[in-house]
Amino acid sequence: MTETPPIVVAALYHFARLDRYEALKQPLAELCCRHGLKGTLLLASEGVNGTLAGPRAGIDAMLAFLRAQPELAGLEHKESFADTMPFYRLKVRLKREIVTMGVPDTDPTRIVGTYVAPEDWNDLIADPDTVVIDTRNDYEVKIGTFEGAVNPQTQTFREFPDWVRRNENALRGKKIAMFCTGGIRCEKATAFVRSLGHEEVYHLKGGILNYLETVPEPVSTWNGECFVFDERVAVGHGLSLGTHALCRACRQPLSPEEMASPEYREGVQCPHCVGRFSDADRARFAERQRQVELAHRRGERHIGDGPWPADG
């Protein structure tokens, strides 16, 4: 019997009117420190969002604290497991938004799209009257998406509302089906689109990760891998580890073909950023990579070998 790895990784978010969010920061930070939790937790007047890792007892204590707040009683979370701590520090931050779209008064607790279970997603997006929209950023879409999905080619989620406004005529009268990695961006995206008067707006419950975990690969309409904001970089069907790595200079995900490029130098540059940095920058990156390799040979992890920072 395989033993469960000792580190629990809990990903969570919940939209709620949380007017007293500032008062929660200190007790949450103290609780997390006391239990040895690391990762990032964002608090805003619209709710909570974050990923924290640590021992079972600590994760349970943190979740119990959050759910003890009346506004967050319905908070759901998703767990995975790790052999070693995937984060280097704890950050509990106050923000204007728990996922940054930049449109005031977009409120998923008031208006939101219709949730679609992973088992029903294929039928919805196969409908010729459905426009399927990938709400993620371009670097994420590049490594995998659903068949027939529209790529808005955004660099940040802040650009998504402007893309919707520019394409209002093409969307009018259509079924609009949107998806993202874990569901949080779609909560806001569907709320915004519905606020413009579109009625048939849908989103994939639990996001791509839930689909890849639930839908068997032989009947899946997903192509490629799914970018994730942690040290795995990307996952495939069944949430198996993907083939992509991260450029430690520009933070772009890299395919095996890109890593085979003569322009790729591990930790220093890749085809995306080969002309972007100065000689001094590349020298600094090379020294960081040398320290990473020395740490690996000692059986340790170097802070320069950490995961991609989460995109709010």
TrEMBL record:
The gene is trhO. This is tRNA uridine(34) hydroxylase. SUPFAM superfamilies: Rhodanese/Cell cycle control phosphatase. Catalyzes oxygen-dependent 5-hydroxyuridine (ho5U) modification at position 34 in tRNAs. InterPro entries: Rhodanese-like_dom (IPR001763), Rhodanese-like_dom_sf (IPR036873), TrhO (IPR020936), TRHO_N (IPR040503). Gene3D superfamilies: 3.30.70.100, Rhodanese-like domain (3.40.250.10). Residues 126-220 form the Rhodanese domain. It comes from the Bacteria. Keywords: Oxidoreductase, Transferase, tRNA processing. GO terms for biological process: tRNA modification. It catalyses: uridine(34) in tRNA + AH2 + O2 = 5-hydroxyuridine(34) in tRNA + A + H2O. The keyword Transcription does not apply. Belongs to the TrhO family. Pfam families: Rhodanese (PF00581), UPF0176_N (PF17773). The keyword tRNA processing applies. It is an enzyme of class 1 (oxidoreductase). Its EC number is 1.14.-.-.
